[in-house]
Amino acid sequence: MARKDLTTEQNHHESINLATDDPTPRVAISEDGQIIYASNSFCLLSHIQPDDLKQADVHSVIRFSKASKTLDKIQTGIQKVKINGHKESFDFHFDWLTTPDKQRYLVGSQALKKKTTKKDLKVFEAIILGQKQDNNQDSGAITGQIDMARFLEMSGDAMVVLNKKGQALRANAPFTSLFNFEDNKLPKAVNFMSLFSDHEKPNIQEKDTSFNALVQNDDGDERWIAWRFDQAGQLIYARGHDITEIKAHEKALERREKQLTEAESIGRMGHWYWKIGQEELEWSQEIYRIFGVEKGESRPTLLGLNKMVHRNDVGRVNQVFQRAIIEEKDYDMEFRIKQPSGDIRFIRCEGRCGKDETGEVVALYGIMQDMTERMLNERKLTEAKDSAERAYAAKSQFLANMSHELRTPLNAIIGFSEMMQRQLLGPIGTEKYLEYIGGIRESGEHLLDLISDILDMSK
């Protein structure tokens, strides 16, 4: 074919027009049966996306007559063919085109009212030559793709290409190594979902574009993998990133947080944080319990805190916070709060100042501890101590009085008895001794009454 038919610029211009504006379905096929060009209208006719149609095998898209099963037997002229997705046949006019580099191509256009013209063949030639030139210019891009493939192989992420049925078509070395495939080779038609245990499958939804799953290979090694998916045409691209270490850190952090929560619950102590200038405070779970509110139902704020602090303690609490900010010193205080239930609780607060890199106070943080039980116990101990001291004083007073009361009749009994024994007033029978005997009897009766009273008190 003469080269003077079209200049390069004209060829390129014509090829663009044919590719974008021509409503006639057209296709160009290499001698080995690969579709190298298809117009937009042909793509619409075949119900196949342009990217999927390019380099596709012609026999998977166009079905020729029995007499033309191989391309070299297709004659120039109109033939009835069936196009993918259609039951009816279409009339296509085929021609063999030889390019200046001696390569032969079968070009076809749907035959409506006209045959393929010489101009059409020139445009087909321009398209084919233009694509060859583009392929040569894209050699750098191909090299770049090879480089990128090598970089991907160096990545620790597992990568696999799936079809719509979920069958693995291609995979990189980290993927085959993850599942411990023999010789690190991907088994034929292995299903992606079959690689997961029955325990993990309920957590995986088909519509999910990402999920985390535990993978266990034949060696019993368990790894947490974060899978991400992207679909392009008929293919699904999956990437798995190993997050085992992240999961281990999360589990350790969760365990420490649980231990801290339990320790705070045992000590009835919670931690809090307030960034100066903000209305909201950060509370741990235990402080919610101390204040008698549910997390999620109540939002901790400065205004809410002031409302719950006992009205006689509000001014002192705010003053302590302000002094801490101004003087940049640690602080501690005790105050009372009133829970929504009406219960009064005694709180001990100890805090520190949080500073930025310039040394300016930007936050206050610390702990709050419920001291109610201790305060009540201390109060009971104080009351018991006071009561014991009062009882001890009463006992001492009682014993002092009782000692005096007991000594008085005993002294009379002892004194009168001694005088009579010694007969200081003369021999026994003197009338004065009768008076002493009466005193002895009266003192004895009084002493008996005192002892009876003591016995009654002891009962």
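Second entry:
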Amino acid sequence: MPPLTNVAANGELEHRLAVVASIDVHTRSTDELVHTLLERLRDELAADTATVLVVDPSGSHLVALAAIGLEDEVLQGFRIKVGAGFSGRVAETRTPTILDEVTSSTVTNPIILNRGLRSMAAVPLIATGTLIGVLHTGSESPAFFDHDDLAVMQVIGERIATALVMERSASERSAALILQRSLLPSRLPEVEGIEMASRFVPAAGFGLGGDWFDAFVLPDDSLGIVMGDVTGSGLAAAVVMGRLRSALRAYAIDAATPAEALDKLNRKFMHFEPGQMATVLYFTISPDRETVTIASAGHPPPIGASPGEAAQFLACVPRPPIGVPSDRPCVVTHVPLPRGTTLACFTDGLYERRTAPIDRQLERLRAAVTADDPETVCSTVMGAMVGSHLVEDDTALLALIRTR
């Protein structure tokens, strides 16, 4: 079959393409738009069916999303492996294709065979270089479709692919934000001898997903503080973040030290989340509030500021991030916490900027932390590091002070 670019344009085709291009895509929901475009495709081609299949999250199968004339595909949750059958081959090769004769050797979907279709045409749905799915149409007549039909299908397919990507992006961002907010502490625990405050700003655009902080009281009355950052963004990163948070809480209850909890977390993460990575800082404050025990997996240490003294990064020997193979176990560092001392921990969204060296940004951050009440510290730090700019990455900050 010659490529579409070699097909000479003609007045009739130009008119058909103009009709398709005139469809208003801005005042409809995605479901309405897809249904309208499928109806227009069926009418323009005088076909009997029109169907959209989308790639599932694993990328290995196509799943029926919407159909006219083949509604059973959607109702029955039809799915087919990429590379198998007519639609699967179109997805695998990303090539617009005409099938002049439908047979059991060329089409594996029993719904199509039972429907009595004799010929089919299909185009891949591609947006921003990514395969979104397949659009196919069918006729009860053999050898029914031609290259002009494929040209019309491609225009409609581009619109469907763009609409699906936009909806997916909006839905995933909304879901990731909801998941993030549900897992962040709605209220920091009230702990004798400690006052706390926090800030969290999700990334502008679609970058949000993997940052979190946590604070909890352990059975021995120690206070546990966690700050973490999952590599990546979007809903997938938010889901991994939720799993990490839950697992670390479970390990923290029984672990003798923060290092032991992080080692267990890494073992779990390496087994159940291969290929993922996260930095995690976990420290505890002793029941008498006099000692901080710190362990880090690739995460920056807290900043401490005592009255009358300049703030400093607390001593800490980090192991590699969670998810990175290493024979080196996590170690703990014990640091005294004098009364009136403020601690601040954070994620890299607070200081990483494309236009400024990290060393300079970390120095600005250190200088912004003072021995003051946590709300004041959070406001001062956010003003100094974020100001009136949109953050490019999730930004988490937690400050605390020992009051007795």
